[in-house]
Design brief:
The protein is α/β, with parallel strands linked by helices and 349 residues long. The chain is 21% helix and 20% strand. It binds S-adenosylmethionine. The site of S-adenosylmethionine (SAM) has 21 residues, from helix 3.
């Protein structure tokens, strides 16, 4: 469960545009192991990743042959405070000139040059030294929205990265616009962004397998987060698994919302198996969501136009009418109480 302080770390990140949280190799390995077959013969693009410092580059370069990639492209961004390197993967001398120029690296093969039987980051380093053409300066600043990065995006099959939290919506919008497959890290709270929620609702993006609990900061320290995980449109086995349920609906146990035409189900495992109508469930449901079993209809979060909403409160109803209008409300001992944000779902007919 997310802690209040870890969630507010993310809010703060978005607010002060502190986007400098670096993904650890173990977290990338843990998630990527589930998708190996889907990478065969694919062009992978990491577009928020200084190739000399990102573990995404390191992972794909070291696993280039194991995944049978066709090509790996990574680009860095001018303004990154680590450009120039607090977290260098390589001995950079001779590989990258001084300064903060944004770079692109494109590789189409990685050989076991040091003949140790495995592809290591040393092999990648040797490859970059021998094949100077595989890295070059970008003309612009490496912004993922820049023309030259969009051209690289167009050539890519799958985009994999941890994009800047503060630009998450624009980042996803661009991937969608170009119809790309992706596996990216994002904040659970992103589902309350209207445009992003529409993608979730329409099954254009879903949760990956895991959460990412700690990121490295440029000063080398770790920062903990409670509500960060993977989003993807690559297939996952878990979205085909049926959620096993055992509870039956009864009106005494399940409250009806006062302002939505739906019932409150406070725990995902308590979804009543025989309820045909709309149900409000915790947003953690997304981790269990199988689109063949359920349909997502909406979210009870600042959505005054939600078609399942039955009323808007005024100050005559309650002094807390603003809080109540923000979410779904239930009556407890004759007093109206707002619930947490809920996904509105129903069983697929
Ligand atoms: C959350 S960090 C993650 C870095 C790296 N992908 C990783 O996971 O270790 C986001 C990165 O995106 C870079 N960035 C910020 N704005 C960008 C933009 N407009 N275009 C490309 N990269 C950007 C930041 O400098 C930062 O390095």
């Amino acid at each position: 469960m997310a802690t209040k302080s870890s969630n507010s770390n993310l809010h703060r990140a978005a607010k002060v545009k502190n986007d400098e949280f670096y993904t650890q190799l173990a977290d990338i390995e843990k998630e990527l192991k589930h998708y190996k077959d889907q990478f065969r013969d694919k062009i992978v693009y990491c577009n928020c990743d200084d190739p000399f410092e990102s573990n995404f580059f390191k992972y794909f370069a070291a696993n280039f042959n194991a995944l049978r990639l066709k090509r790996l492209i990574t680009t860095s961004y001018t303004k990154s405070p680590i450009a120039g390197g607090q977290l260098p993967l390589f001995e950079m001398e001779g590989l990258k000139p001084d300064g903060k120029e944004p770079y692109v690296i494109e590789i189409t093969e990685v050989l076991d040059i040091n003949k140790d039987g495995a592809i290591s980051i040393e092999d990648v380093e040797t490859l970059l030294r021998r094949n100077k053409k595989s890295s070059r300066k970008l003309q612009g600043n490496g912004d993922f929205r820049s023309e030259e990065c969009v051209e690289l995006l167009k050539r890519a099959d799958i985009v994999v990265t941890n994009p800047p939290f503060s630009l998450f919506r624009q980042y996803v919008a661009q991937l969608m616009e170009h119809g790309k497959k992706f596996l990216i890290i994002g904040n659970d709270n992103a589902i309350s962004y209207k445009d992003f929620f529409e993608f979730i609702k329409k099954n254009k993006v879903w949760n990956g397998y895991g959460k990412v609990k700690e990121f490295k900061q440029p000063d080398g320290t770790l920062k903990k987060f409670g509500n960060v995980g993977w989003y993807t449109n690559l297939d996952t086995t878990k979205r085909h698994e049926k959620l096993t349920l055992y509870k039956k609906y009864n009106a005494k146990e399940y409250s009806k919302y006062d302002n939505y035409n739906a019932i409150e189900v406070p725990k995902v495992s308590d979804i009543p198996i025989n309820h045909k109508g709309v149900m409000g469930v915790p947003v953690t449901f997304l981790d269990k969501y199988n689109p063949n079993q359920f349909e997502i209809l909406g979210i009870t979060d600042r959505d005054s136009k939600n078609k399942y909403r039955t009323k808007m409160y005024t100050k005559e109803d309650s002094p807390k009418y603003n809080d109540l209008n923000r979410r779904a409300a239930i009556k407890v001992n004759n007093e109206l109480k707002p619930t947490y944000a809920r996904l509105l779902i129903k069983f697929k007919q």
